[in-house]
Every structure is written in C-alpha cells, then in structure tokens.
C-alpha cells in the first residue's frame, strides 16, 4: 500500500500546474474555467486527476491549446463590378483574397451583399472556398449602391471584415417582357374563398428583372380586391462560385436563347389599351394548357357568386420600367345547372333496342360542360303487383326514391282494384298526384329487383340512391369543345347495355347529371321507360347483349 502511495505521490509531482492549481471538482465531469490569464501565442493543456477510495491517483491531459487573441488580417477585395451573365445583366462579379492568421489560421470565409455596408438583404451570408465569384439575377436597380462584405475567421473564432461598394448603372429605355398570367382554375370556379394566380418567368436583357407583383380585381383595369403584393423568393439569385460554373451558365443562358425560354407555355394573346401610359396583355389559354413558373395562392377571400374576377401581374426591370398583364376573367359560379329529362312511357323492342331520352339543361353562369347518365333495371313487374296487394295501408302515393312514385290501392279494402303506376317527378310538380310518402320504394326494390352491379371505379357516391348503385352508367361526355353553352336541348340514345340487355316486361329508371364550367354537378328528375315486345313480330337491329 505504501509503495502504491509513493507511486501516486511521484505521479502528482510530475504534473505541477503553473496557471491554475488543482481544484476539487467533486463528481462533475465538466467544468468552465474562468478568470485565468492566458498569454497570446502560447500553448496550454488541461489536466484532470482522479483519486480512488484508497488514495491512488491517475492523471489525464487534453491536447495542446494554442491561445490566439488577435483577429486575422483583413481580406482584400480586388474586383467588384456589375456584369452581364447570359440574359441576366443584373449580375455581379467580384474577386477577393482571404485574411491571414499566423497563429490559428483561417478556417472560414463568408460574403454577403446588401444595400448598406454590412447588410445581407440582397444576398445572404454564404461560406465560400473559392474567391472569384459571380452572382446572376440580383434584385439591383439603376442607381443602387451595392455593398459587398467579406469576413475571414481564424481558428479561435475571431474575424476580420472588409467592405466595398459599386454603383449600379444600366442603359435601358424599354419595359420588360409581358408575362402570361392565368387564374387557377381558369375560366370558372365554385370557390368563393380562394384562388391561385400563376405566371411565367420573363427576361430583360438590358437591365434584368428585379421584382414581380400580383393582385386581384373585379375589372381588367386595376387590382381592387387584392392590391399589389410583392412576390417574394420567386426568381432567386444564382451563385456561380467557379469559373466552370460561370462559363457553363453563361452559355446555357445566352441572350439568343431568351425567346425560347420565355415562350414556354405561352398561349395566344391580344392587347387592350388601359390608358396612354400602360398596356395590359390579356392572355388566352391554349388547348394544351399552360405551364406556369410561379404560383401564388390567395386565401380568405370573399368572392361573390355570379361575379367575374381578374388576376394581375406587374414586372419591374432594373431601370424601374414596368409591364403589366391581366388574365382572362374568372367567373365565380355557386349554383347547380338546371336539368330536366323526358322520354316515352315505353319502347317496343321489336323495332327499337334503345332507350331514348331528351335532356333540357340550362346554366346561365358557367355554362354546360359535360354530362353523364345512369340506368337502374326494374324487372319482374308482376312481383310489384303482388307486393302492392300487401301495401294497401299505404293507399295513395308512396315515395319510391328521389323522383319515382308508385300509386297503389286495394279493392278488397273498399277501394279500387290493385294498380301499379310509375309516375315521373314532373307529374308531382304539376300537382297531378297527391298522397302519403312512405317507405314503399325500399320494400318494392328489396323484393322485386336483384342486386345491381356496376364497376366500382365508375360509380360516384352521388349516384347511389337508396343504397342501390346503377345497373349501367356512362362516363362523363363533353357536350362541347368550345365555350360551354348556357342552354342546350339534346338527345341521348342509351344502348349497348350490359347482359342481358333490354328485356320485354321490364322497366328502366334513367337519370342524367350535368357538370357546369365551375365543376358543380346538377342532377335531373328520373324517368321510367317500360320495354315491350310484340309477339310474332320480327325483331330488328337486335344488339348482341339481347340475343
């Protein structure tokens, strides 16, 4: 034990601190050492001594720590100038040499661009390892005094700073290109609280583009709903930190390529004069659609149904000249199309193997865009008579779905003989029927009609009525490829139905839906067409599904 103690004592004698004496740290594993007088350009170590319960000690030390209390020498900016990079004349080129530090060396170099010395509002602080740098597409205007600030940091975290400024001058007397601007969606919308504005990037080879603004208005003259808003962080500056990057970028963005780049997605356009000093371009969306470079979402709006709105975009170049564009009108439509259908009470299958329907539709705001129809199959009508014999308590008119009425009575109950009539909604609207609505439809369909099948992906939730999907249905059919008409009467011939096709003695319920230009869907009344076959008469034009 004494020998170990002697060894421990010898170990302590070898590590005699000359800056700070041994301090009891208790059970801590870290400490902040303050109020010590370290000397510049000298090296120091931190020792830690651990003692166990019998007094034996071990000592560990840190790596050497060089004390550096002086900042690096200041970096030198040897070049700062405005330059043209491709079709971005609003660009800067600068060269600098980092500071030097003999004690701890230079570990980081940063630069920033600002409207004043030391600011970074034009280009944020960025660390670089190369010192011949170009930056394209900066938001710098005629007469701006742009400051470059460079910082060098040594290993001790001390920095030195150098700044230099350049005055921006352009030779430009023409406004920038006019963008193509659209509303998203285009043409019509059913939303009253939000829309988006999209536009394409434009260029100015003389002074560059320094600002985009957007707005929304009730006319094509000025944005009176959402006033001009600066579009932030859209067309950002581009850092080219090496000669290779700068050369490749300049070739790719030569002014001769400007027309190709700026025309992407643009459609046909025409011009309208707003006043003597500004021109507004009204854009038109081509059938292939428009690719927009920038999109801004406008929310928490209070748009009114039946009103039209216009999107605006204003572009400012480096010389302070502007171009302004306005979209085609966007009509807000919050109403459903009015749809009514009619057809014959019956068809004779020997002659005509189709269900003819006439559709009358009107939408005074966004027009009629497309339609689709569905067919429900009601077979074994004799079963309905049997069921109705048990439903005389519901004498009068009962509800058989959204628009179908079955009238029933029972002679034995002191009323007329059992009868089955299917009456279209038009009869109800005209006051020709009256009576009690009940749950007859569910009972009749449950017992008289089989489970109806249709491809799940083709059936929309609003096509399910009384838990019954359609037997057959179409997809959406465009009514017109041009401007949606406001009012239209057209005919539908429903054929090529699923197996077994049309059958004599069965009835078919038909309904039509119409979508307007704003995407709102309106449903029609339902009609019932009964299919008949005349015995002994040769059948004509029989479809395969009916053979």
How are the SSEs ordered, and which strands pair?
Elements: H1 2-14, E1 43-44, E2 47-51, E3 57-61, E4 65-66, E5 76-85, E6 88-97, E7 106-114, E8 123-127, E9 132-136, E10 145-154, E11 159-167, E12 181-184, E13 188-189, E14 195-199, E15 209-217, E16 226-230, E17 238-240, H2 243-252, H3 258-262, E18 269-273, E19 279-283, E20 294-298, E21 308-317, E22 322-326, E23 330-332, E24 338-342, E25 346-348, E26 355-362, E27 368-378, H4 381-389, E28 396-399, E29 405-408, E30 421-423, H5 425-429, H6 440-448, E31 472-473, E32 477-478, E33 487-494, E34 507-516, E35 521-523, E36 527-532
Parallel strand pairs: 13-23, 19-22, 25-36
Antiparallel strand pairs: 1-4, 2-3, 5-6, 6-9, 7-8, 7-10, 9-17, 10-11, 12-14, 14-20, 15-16, 15-21, 18-19, 21-22, 21-23, 24-26, 26-33, 27-31, 27-32, 27-34, 28-29, 29-30, 34-35, 34-36
Give the overall average pLDDT.
Answer: 77
The CATH homologous superfamily of the largest domain corresponds to Macroglobulin (MG2) domain
Secondary structure category: mainly beta
In quaternary terms, these chains amount to single chain
How many DSSP-defined strands? 36
Per CATH, which architecture of the largest domain?
A: Sandwich
Low-confidence stretches: 1-7, 256-289, 380-457
How many discrete domains?
A: 4
- Morphology call: elongated
CATH topology of the largest domain: Immunoglobulin-like
Strand content: 35-45%
CATH C-level label of the largest domain: Mainly Beta
How many helical stretches?
6
Residue share in helices? under 10%
The biggest beta sheet is recorded as: 8 strands, mixed
C-alpha end-to-end distance = 112 Å
Radius of gyration, taken over Cα atoms and rounded to an integer in Å: 41 Å
